[in-house]
Write a structure and sequence with these properties.
This protein is α/β, with parallel strands linked by helices. The chain has 11 helices and 13 strands. It is about 35% helix and about 15% strand. Helix 1 runs parallel beside helix 2 and helix 3 runs antiparallel to helix 9. About 45% of the residues are buried.
């Protein structure tokens, strides 16, 4: 006798989708006014409630109290709303639960991932790679390949490089050399440095300001990796691809699809100029494996499926249109801030990240009083700035600026 919970329950699935729509319609603010008390028990219940009751119990917290990343007032972090085709892809992936560690556990999903990476790699001058949960693992994987293939002994990066660079250097036993970055533009400053045994990590979209290092720097280095976690998808845009000129000269590139390709967490890629050599260098076999396991991950789900559905639905043009829209929104926000005498702009946005603040009041105090909108905070040279990242194509720059101005008046 079969277990009915392993068969499709269309009524239950329909109710799950209805709850998404119901709570989305109720979201008047980008952040919930207050967090509800946890609807789950403190310990595993002896008897279950049943699936329908569990849906109803968890929905108020999981859906009702979630940050609304697609709200017109949400102009905060490098976390986008996701399009509905990606929701369908995530549901499909969960329903079949493929394991890309084995061909016979994922006969189609393995090929789909190769194809999706193959679609994207040429935009970066790479010939292949693989998906993984985030760009931190992409950086670690790339530097691991650099150590094995080129014998690198140190890592050179900007002082403003993502903290994952320091983590990777430590885990791999590599010396880390941090170069200074410009005070005003946050770009790596060049230095006379012997990089014959070094892997140089260049940032394409720093965390605080979205700055892009000179991507053609240190051509003599043993290996060059571009951490394009944020700005990488600009390569799909005909208008903005030139901002990442030089990325095609790298040995490896990492980017996060769960940022500017609008995918669910956790979806990122590491790509290589010579992926066959890189994959061989970071592969391990085992008696239970039909073929070698590539990279850091063992079991690996079908994270390519939501991405594939989105890219097929939108194509390059549709994907680029959403990215271009976000870039335009960042410029509109910067222009509005520049025109407001009570506000101060750090500098022109480069890759859709705007740093701004009140001229006469601490940014953190103002942020805590904002209603109807959300912007994040960052520290630059020890000073707090409001940080608006254009990850939300539905954001309204005027609504956000007006909310900050209203917070100034509320003191």
């Amino acid at each position: 006798m079969s277990d009915p919970d392993f068969e499709p329950d269309f009524e239950g699935l329909q109710r799950a989708v209805e709850l998404i729509a119901e709570y989305a319609a109720q979201a008047e603010q980008p952040l919930p006014r207050e967090a509800p008390s946890s609807p789950w028990p403190n310990r595993l219940p002896e008897a279950g409630t049943g699936a329908q009751a569990a849906l109803e119990a968890l929905a108020p917290a999981v859906l009702g109290a979630a940050a609304r990343l697609g709200h017109p007032g949400y102009f905060g972090h490098m976390d986008p709303p996701t399009p509905w085709p990606s929701w369908a892809g995530a549901l499909w992936a969960a329903s079949v639960n493929q394991n890309l560690l084995h061909d016979d556990a994922a006969p189609v999903a393995r090929e789909l991932e190769r194809s999706v990476v193959g679609w994207l790699a040429p935009f970066f001058g790479m010939d292949g790679g693989h998906l993984l949960p985030g760009s931190s693992i992409a950086t670690l994987t790339a530097l691991w390949a650099a150590r094995e293939l080129r014998g690198v002994q140190k890592v050179v990066a900007s002082e403003l490089a993502h903290l994952s660079v320091r983590k990777a250097a430590g885990l791999l036993g590599l010396e880390l050399v941090e170069l200074p970055a410009g005070r005003d533009d946050h770009r790596m400053r060049m230095s006379r440095l012997d990089t014959a045994n070094a892997a140089v990590v260049l940032s394409a979209g720093t965390v605080a300001a979205g700055a892009v290092d000179p991507l053609d720097a240190f051509p003599e280095a043993a290996w060059r990796h571009v951490d394009a976690a944020w700005a990488g998808p600009l390569r799909l845009s005909e208008r903005h691809a030139g901002l990442l000129e030089g990325i095609e000269q790298a040995d490896s590139v990492g980017f996060s699809a769960h940022k500017w390709l609008f995918q669910p967490k956790e979806c990122a890629a590491v790509m290589f100029r010579d992926s066959a050599a890189a994959h061989e260098a970071v592969s391990y076999g085992g008696g239970y494996l039909a073929q070698a396991n590539v990279g850091l991950l063992g079991s690996h789900g079908a994270s390519a499926l939501p991405l594939a559905l989105t890219l097929m639905a939108w194509g390059r043009e549709g994907t680029a249109r959403r990215i271009d829209t976000c870039m335009d929104l960042a410029q509109r926000l910067a222009d509005r801030v520049r025109d407001e005498p009570r506000l101060e702009l750090f500098g022109p946005p480069v890759t859709g990240v705007v740093l701004w603040r009140p001229a006469d009041e601490p940014a953190g105090e103002v942020q805590s009083r904002i209603k109807g909108a959300f912007v994040s905070l960052t520290s630059v040279h020890g000073e707090s700035w409001l940080r608006s990242v254009a990850a939300n194509p539905n954001a309204n720059p005027d609504l956000v600026v007006d909310a900050v101005l209203a917070a100034l008046l509320s003191t």
